[in-house]
Amino acid sequence: MDIRVEVRTVSRVAYDHLYRMILAGEFLPGQWIKERQLTELLGISRTPVREALRMLEQERLVVSIPHRGFRVPIPTIKELEDFYELRAELEGMAARLAATRAAEADLSHLKSLWEAAQEGLRVGDATAMAESNDAFHHSLAQCTGNAELVSSLDRLRTGIDLYRNLSWSAQKGRPALTLEQHQRILTFVCQRNGPAAQDSARTHILDSLALAKQGLQSFHHQSGPNE
Predict the structure, then answer these.
(1) Could you please report the per-residue DSSP string of 98-112?
(2) C-alpha distance from residue 196 to each of 32, 177, 200 (Å)
(3) pLDDT tens across 28-40, in order?
(4) Where residue 186 sits, what CATH number does that domain have?
(5) How far is residue 143's CA from residue 28's CA, in Å, rounded to a whole number?
(6) What dihedral angle (degrees, nearest 10) is formed by the CA atoms of 186, 192, 193, 198?
(7) Contacting residues for 136 by C-beta, under 8 A, at least 6 apart
(8) Do 32 and 108 reside in the same domain of the chain?
(9) Residue that is last in its domain, among 71, 87, 117
(10) How far is CA 193 from the centre of its chain?
(11) Are residues 66 and 8 in the same domain?
C-alpha cells in the first residue's frame, strides 16, 4: 500500500475519533490536546495524529499555538453571537423551504432521525444525541434542494459543535428541550407551514445562543481570570 494513502486513512480514523470526543465535551474550552497522549489513546504514531489535528484546526475545532501545540478554543461572546445569529437565519430559511419542497420520503427520514435522538436521550448517550442533532439539521437543509444553503449550514454547524457543549452545560435539560423544539419544527414542516417552521427554527437556534452565552460566562467564572 502507498504509505501516503495509509497515513491519510489512519489520520481520518484519528480525526473521526477526536471529532466525536470534542462533540461529546470530553475536551473543554481552553484544554490542551497533547499529541503523546493521543498516540497512546489511539495506538497510532504521531504523524497521523498531527494530521488529524490539522484537519480539526481547519474546521476551527482546535487552534494551534506556536511552540506549544493544540488546544480547544475559547469563544468570545461576539463569536457566539456571530455564529448563532447567522445560523438562526439560515436554519429558518431551510425550514421554510423544506416545508414546501420536502418529499414524503424526506419527511420519513427526518422522523427517523428525531426518533434516534430520542433514543440517545433515553439511554443517556450524549454523543449519539449530538450526532443525531447534526443529522437532523443537515437533512432538513437537504430537503430544500439548495446545495449552497446545505454547504453554508454544514460549515457553520461544524464551528457550533464546539459551542453546543456550553449551552448543554448551562441547562441540563437542554437536550430534552432540543428534541421538543426539533419535533415542533418537524411538525410544521410536515404540515407544509413554511412561516411557522421558519419561526420555530429561528427560536430554537436563538435559544441555544442564550444558553451558550450563559455557559461561557459560567466557564470563565470557574476558570478564573488567568485561564
Answers:
(1) HHHH--HHHHHHHHH
(2) 43, 18, 6
(3) 778 899 888 889 8
(4) 1.20.120.530
(5) 34
(6) 50
(7) 110, 113, 114, 117, 182
(8) no
(9) 71
(10) 26
(11) yes
Q: Which of 45, 71, 97 is the last residue of a domain?
A: 71
What distance in Å separates the CA atoms of residue 189 and residue 93, rounded to the nearest whole number? 12
Cell numbers for 142, please give them: 437537504
Count of domains for the chain:
2
Residues 50, 105, single domain; the answer is no
Average pLDDT per run of 10 along the chain, which is 227 residues long? 55 87 76 89 89 89 89 86 93 98 97 92 81 91 97 82 64 82 97 98 92 76 54
Q: What is d(CA 215, CA 135) in angstroms, rounded to the nearest whole number?
A: 24
Cα–Cα dist 94/195, whole Å: 11
- State the cell numbers at 151: 454547504
